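subagent[fold] <- orchestrator: predict structure for attached chain, return tokens only, no commentary.
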Amino acid sequence: MMEQELKQINFAFIGFGNVGRAFARLLINRRRWLIKKYGVEWKITGIATNNHGTCIDARGLPVQKILRSWKAHSNLNNFHNGPSRNSHSDFIRQCGADVLFEMSILDLNGDPASTYIREALRAGLNVITTNKGPVATNFRQLSRLARQRDVQFLYEGTVMDGAPVFNLVRQNLPGTHIRSLRGILNSTTNYILTQMEQGTSFEAALDYVKKKGITEADPRLDLEGWDSAFKLSVLIQALMGGSVKPNDIERHSISEDIGRKVRAAVRRDRRLRLVARAYRQGGRVIGKVELQELEIFDPLAAIRGLSNILVLNTDTMRELAIIENNPSVEQTAFSLFSDLVSIL
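subagent[fold] -> orchestrator:
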């Protein structure tokens, strides 16, 4: 019996922070599984970052060596073996990848990540991203461009890390109409609120999530409801067919003066949560990120700490809840892996 001929796939990364490095480790760990299950062998031919340089090598970068030697001041330029590159646009053209993994940090205007994704799709690369910014601000344009170029544009990791949300609906809820949805989508604010129920100060709870690397690079994006609004915008556009952008979503924020309201809710046997919700109204979809005082038996009230929940109200399955308990960077890395497997 002849051995199966392996298919070679090349990957490139934009961003090599905690998620990128965790994903690289996961790829190494699942190398044999990908060969056995899909007959696929891979190599990473390029990594581009803002603060740690850029490297390209058509033969494949020494990923394990890069990971072993990684430090806060690591310089990827030392691993470059190819033509000079002066920008991320040069990188996209020269990296020789079949799949680009875009993992840069959230920016409220969606750029420069939207530009990177647009250039990659136009060049015929499949794109998988964890960055909610470009998906929320340019969903229809980027999705249309991917269809035109006959490539994939996937974004499972933009909401609830590695929990299956978009893939679940796409693959397992055929013909289902989502009437409304609601959830707790931001780990930082949920941790702060549930810690304050136990007497922890706002400052101490915020300091903890900062040190753990859980907040956005700018924690105000969490505290002012922007992170939840971007995720809600992605959900509305991808799952409900709406056209709601983050700026269209009414937002509540939390600050150090919220402690009094948290404790008052507990005394009434209720819980205060930052709830993202979307519903249909007169042919439109409305999105809101609101501080809500919930009954103790509400499933959202039971979500504590860093955990998230999304409840879909559908015409086929009634209410369907997806819960992710205390996610970490490994779950976000898995979202990239699950999206990758869906295109193999």
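orchestrator: received. Logging for downstream: The first strand starts at residue 7 and ends at 14. DSSP finds 13 helices and twelve strands in the chain.
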